[in-house]
Amino acid sequence: xxxxxxxxxxxxxxxxxxxxxxxxxxxxxxxxxxxxxxxxxxxxxxxxxxxxxxxxxxxxxxxxxxxxxxxxxxxxxxxxxxxxxxxxxxxxxxxxxxxxxxxxxxxxxxxxxxxxxxxxxxxxxxxxxxxxxxxxxxxxxxxxxxxxxxxxxxxxxxxxxxxxxxxxxxxxxxxxxxxxxxxxxxxxxxxxxxxxxxxxxxxxxxxxxxxxxxxxxxxxxxxxxxxxxxxxxxxxxxxxxxxxxxxxxxxxxxxxxxxxxxxxxxxxxxxxxxxxxxxxxxxxxxxxxxxxxxxxxxxxxxxxxxxx
Length: 308
Known about the structure:
The chain is α+β, with helices and mostly antiparallel strands. The chain contains eleven helices and seven strands. The radius of gyration is 22 Å and the shape is flat. About 5% of the residues have low confidence.
């Protein structure tokens, strides 16, 4: 098949591999970007440890947390240029959408709706408190006509938690990264204490900086673990090491994958940068100091334009 220079360029940007290696990988994968990344990783040619997402789009991410910290919402709206993302019309639409999601939708836990799944579930709903009685889709169409750029409601997350949980949000880079995370103390009276509020806020900053994919290792799907093992095995077999050694190497790399991808196993990002403890250890130590047990029921992290 003929591989265009544009798709080769995108693969190079996502993996750091050379031009010819990217071209060969795309040819082998019949042009499928994700399969080509796997081909490069198996060959040890990709510098990307995990998916970095599609080519970044412009736009804005916005968050809301209820007064008592038991409900929250995160929305991402994409546009074509950073210039449009900074306009008052665009930002007002994002603010109106966030209010709509807050008032018109609900969930039990960390609900994520994105891409094609939005459909009539959102776009056909009457936009909350809209003076012209438009639907969300109508307001979006009007904004596109006015601005002259394609604008897409990319994804939303609506969160509802029990009163034993406190939610915190963090928006970084003027709306390029957004996070909501919850901390459950198991006790209603302690969930909104100053210590829990401070801890949850610090966790939201950590998630923004460290981009975990899962809360802990047991949350990682079996097919993801199997895929990683196959990649590590393919990498190790090129070294011609004994089978027993290869299995140990695979176990070690899988452990590193969990430490990189799972929130509780990541090294907690501290303000002074001197902390060496995992998030799990930090939670346990803080819990002992103040007589609480902390659990993380979930989190959601959006990075502008990334693949879900």
